[in-house]
Amino acid sequence: MNNLLIQAESFFDGRQNHSAGPYLLTIANGIIRDICELRSSNGFPANDAATTRLHTAFVMPGLVEAHCHLFLDGGELDLARRKEYLAAGRSQMLSTGRANLAANLAAGITLIRDAGDIHGINTHLKEEISHASGVVPELRSPGRAIRKTGRYGSFMALEVRDAAGIENTIETLAATADDLKILLTGIIDFENGCVKGPVQFDLEETRLIVRTARRLGLKTYAHCNGPEGLNIAVEAGIDSIEHGFFMEPDIVKKMADKGTAWVPTFAPVYFQFSRPDVTQWNPATLDKLHAILQNHFHNVAGAAAKGVPVVAGSDAGSYGVPHGTGLIDEVLFLRQAGLTVQQVLSAATAVPRQLWNASPADVAVGQAANFIGLDDSPFKDMNSLRRVQLICRNGQAVKPDGTSPIVASPLLSQRN
Ligand SMILES: [Zn+2]
């Protein structure tokens, strides 16, 4: 295998920033063998045909997208076309999913957790990835989610009616699922500034869901908004709250005590607020949306301060949230909430990998080379996250379009 030498001005290892560079990272056989400071700054060692030399300003672990729907194109804003698409054939959905995988990779995302799709396109894509060569993102798939019969979530979830249905359905899903996705409440009613409809599962049912999932080795993540559902989710031991709008400080405290993760998904709600030209909301609804977002920023900051594991997930595929760029927007929303740069970068790298027992991607000696290069440090400019120069997985480096392996001719400027 081709060896890689990467010169970086600074790097983030997944938890900490290292800014006393420049540094030289040596990668051999897909493993980071050495990271040293280039104090004398002679640049790369003498030429060696078997080694590719690259220069990038900043290295950090490959990003994690914790919540998206790969079969949906979030950039499609025509509501009629979105509706029509839900009846599209499997091959069209698969090609949308493949394009969305590529968009994730181009944004520097190397681990994706899908959040449910009734067609199972997510699981099909995971299977494709397992046979793919070259640089592809890693995918966790729940397959189909579960919801209460007749309630919200038809595009992503199977219906369960009672305790027997819960157990049987989870047992079936467990054959291919990496995690169990649950729809615990409805969606947000933007016009009234509240959650639509009652909770889908009561505390006893949610406990049964968690117990059954754990018995089958699955972690649980729940679409959940509003205090009633949030209290049930946390009380029942759900591993991760998705969305979590209308959060309250006492629930945050319980989450911190229990180690419940939170994926706050600002992006789809921010789109509703920021694009009235598209969404056609009137000023009164925009005021409601503004209040919902302000409350969310405030609660997410409080959660991070109390030690709740906050995780970046954009809900890409949702209306107005494209894959790839949606996650970068989400990371910037976490920063806007008041999390430190270090906290937001961890929320999109080491924190979810650790929570999910996924293979680590820390930029550290002995770890698999699973990192990205940016043209500047996010500690200086958060928008540098939008300027990915290279993606390296298991020692193979590619350009953001994923198509051109950097082997024969180094793509980036070399310094000597
Ligand atoms: Zn979702």
3D structure, described in words:
- By secondary structure, the protein is α/β, with parallel strands linked by helices.
- The chain folds into 2 domains: 3-61 and 361-398, Roll (Urease, subunit C, domain 1), CATH 2.30.40; 63-355, TIM Barrel (Alpha-Beta Barrel), CATH 3.20.20.
- Helix content is 34%, strand content 23%.
- It has 13 helices and 19 strands.
- Strands 1, 2, 3, 4, 5, 17, 18 and 19 form an 8-stranded mixed β-sheet that branches.
- Residues 407-416 have low confidence and may be disordered.
- Bound molecules: zinc ion.
- Zinc ion is lined by residues 67, 69, 115, 315.
Summarize the SSE layout with pairings.
Layout: E1 3-12, E2 17-18, E3 23-28, E4 31-37, E5 51-61, E6 63-68, H1 79-85, H2 90-106, E7 109-114, H3 121-131, E8 138-140, E9 145-148, E10 157-160, H4 163-173, E11 179-183, E12 188-189, E13 194-195, H5 203-215, E14 219-224, H6 227-236, E15 240-243, H7 249-258, E16 261-263, H8 267-274, H9 276-279, H10 283-306, H11 325-337, H12 341-347, H13 350-355, E17 370-374, E18 388-393, E19 396-398
Parallel strand pairs: 1-5, 6-7, 7-8, 9-10, 11-14, 14-15, 15-16
Antiparallel strand pairs: 1-2, 1-3, 3-4, 5-17, 12-13, 17-18, 18-19
Helix pairs in contact: 2-3, 4-5, 5-6, 6-7, 7-10, 8-10, 10-11, 11-12
The structure holds zinc ion.
Supply the number of helical segments. Answer: 13
Q: Which structural class do the helices and strands define?
A: alpha/beta
CATH superfamily of the largest domain: Metal-dependent hydrolases
Do you know the CATH topology of the largest domain? TIM Barrel
Q: Would you identify the CATH architecture of the largest domain?
A: Alpha-Beta Barrel
What's the number of extended β-strand segments? 19
Gyration radius from CA atoms, angstroms: 22 Å
Average pLDDT value? 93
Please indicate the percent range of residues in DSSP E strands (runs of 2 or more). 15-25%
Regarding CATH, which class of the largest domain?
Alpha Beta
Q: State the end-to-end distance.
A: 24 Å
The structural domain count equals: 2
Uncertain stretches? 407-416
Question: Percent range for helical residues?
Answer: 25-40%
Q: Can you summarize the main beta sheet?
A: 8 strands, mixed
Ligand species: zinc ion
Characterize the overall form.
Answer: globular
